[in-house]
Design brief:
Blueprint (H helix, E strand, L loop, with lengths): L1 H11 L20 H15 L5 H6 L3 H10 L10
Helix pairs in contact: 1-2
């Protein structure tokens, strides 16, 4: 989860420690459509995957992002587990 938090933190200019499964555009000031597309690019580049438009639309919060990544075989390990 550290890598994913690092990507999200960088794109949306927020502290990685503040990122939870519920982090979304509703509670993240810089999570707008432009930065969402930057996030998609960063996810694709960092995890060597290609996201479909349907998958991009599904990513409404961090929990959804993890779910989409897992469908691409990306293992997201939670801290403390």
């Amino acid at each position: 989860m550290q890598k994913l938090k690092g990507i999200i933190s960088s794109v949306f200019e927020i502290n990685a420690e503040d990122i939870t499964d519920k982090t979304s555009p509703d509670n993240t000031e810089n999570w707008d459509s432009f930065n969402a597309m930057i996030l998609v690019t960063e996810l694709e580049n960092n995890y060597n995957i290609k996201l479909t438009m349907d998958e991009v639309r599904q990513m409404a919060c961090v929990k959804d992002i993890k779910s989409v990544l897992e469908k691409h075989g990306v293992l997201i390990v939670e801290e403390g587990v």
